[in-house]
Amino acid sequence: MRPDWRWILVPIVALAGGAFAAKPYARLAAPYYHAVAQLLAQGRPWQIASVEVGSSASSPGAVLRLTGYVREFFSDVQPAAKLVGKLQVSAVIESPLIFWSLLLAWPAAGHRQRFARLALGIPVFLLLEAGTTVCQLLNPLAYASAVLAGDPDPVTSWEHWSRFLEAGGRVALAIAGALVTIGVSRFVVRQGRNAAAPRGSRLNRRADPTRRSAGRRPLWTRVPVAAVEECPTRPPTDDRA
Fold it and tell me: What is the pLDDT of residues 55-87, one digit of tens each?
């Protein structure tokens, strides 16, 4: 059995991409993060000022920084607090590397299936980025809103979700998203082939289990006992005669 070199080359390329492309990717995706953050801030006393990549004085390497303002009430003119959400660029690129590496390295039946994976993988990936990176950047704003509201326990659901992502949830969601995309794309391609096949063809008969036995004669037939005629017996003969 020949080894599949894709499962060896893909992790190497992914590690190299994570080491050298983390900062450019975070800078490229910053406008998308900004737009999603503004969308999630609607209906809340939050104002998103900027999302950008910069250096951090407290930790080495580049960070993705979200700057926002929190008001105590919607009618307040001046914000009550200014918050900065930070995330390492190495954590930002973690989900994209796992998702696309698994999606592209998974064996496919043909070019149609690979195209279906790419077409379905783009919206799944955008939802994955919104649920991981953007939610972690907005966590400080949710905490500040809970403190301003006088909540005795300001640990919000945003904080619980952020802890889950930091404890390996980003990896789990990336793998689950890739596997779901692979399964759904395979189902869509299979249904498209069955719909395009001529009626009564072999492919349609495989797709419809109720028609598999149509037109086939049974291998045996059960016959009632009463319908079986007794065979006449020959009278005994005398060989000596």
Answer: 877 767 789 999 999 988 877 778 888 989 999
Q: pLDDT tens digit string along 4-38?
A: 555 566 666 666 666 677 888 999 999 999 999 99
Handedness of CA 126, 127, 133, 135 (dihedral sign): positive
Domains of the chain: which residue ranges?
6-196
Sequence-distant (6+) residues with CB within 8 A of 230 are none
Which residues face 50 on adjacent strands?
Answer: 67
